[in-house]
Specification:
The chain has about 100 residues and is an alpha+beta fold. It has one domain: Ubiquitin-like (UB roll). It has two helices and seven strands. Strands 4-1-7-5-6 form a five-stranded mixed β-sheet, with no helix packed on it. Strands 2-3 form a two-stranded antiparallel sheet. The longest helix has 11 residues. The radius of gyration is 15 Å and the shape is elongated. InterPro entries: PB1_dom. It comes from Brachypodium distachyon (Purple false brome). It holds the Pfam family PB1.
Length: about 100
């Protein structure tokens, strides 16, 4: 079984921090995980590295045959582990956007 490397690519975004508009530059980072990875763990990792305002949300994406798909369940993560078993690397994209479905700020 062993570990997998998860790569998270966070896109640049605007947010409001302490009443000021702040441009946050995108960043890619990686960490090692076991097959017990969950959506909640990815969200927690994001919260530890990035800040966004209360009127924003994150969306986690992964590549599917017909384009990027939002990650919504652990069953999708399990499928990604199976699909990426040879490379041992799983890649996710993350966008931070307004909860009102429009661009932030």
């Amino acid at each position: 079984m062993g570990t997998f490397k998860v790569e998270i690519d966070v896109k640049s975004y605007l947010t409001i921090l302490d009443g000021r508009r702040v441009y946050q530059r995108g960043k890619t980072w990686d960490f090692d995980v076991g097959r017990d990875l969950s959506v909640a763990q990815i969200t927690k990792a994001m919260e530890d590295k990035f800040q966004w305002s209360t009127d924003q949300r994150i969306t986690i994406w992964y590549a599917a045959a017909d384009g990027p798909v939002p990650l919504i369940s652990e069953s999708e993560i399990a499928e990604l582990f199976d699909k990426c078993n040879d490379s041992r690397t799983i890649r996710f994209g993350v966008t931070i956007e307004s909860k009102n479905n429009g661009p932030a700020c």
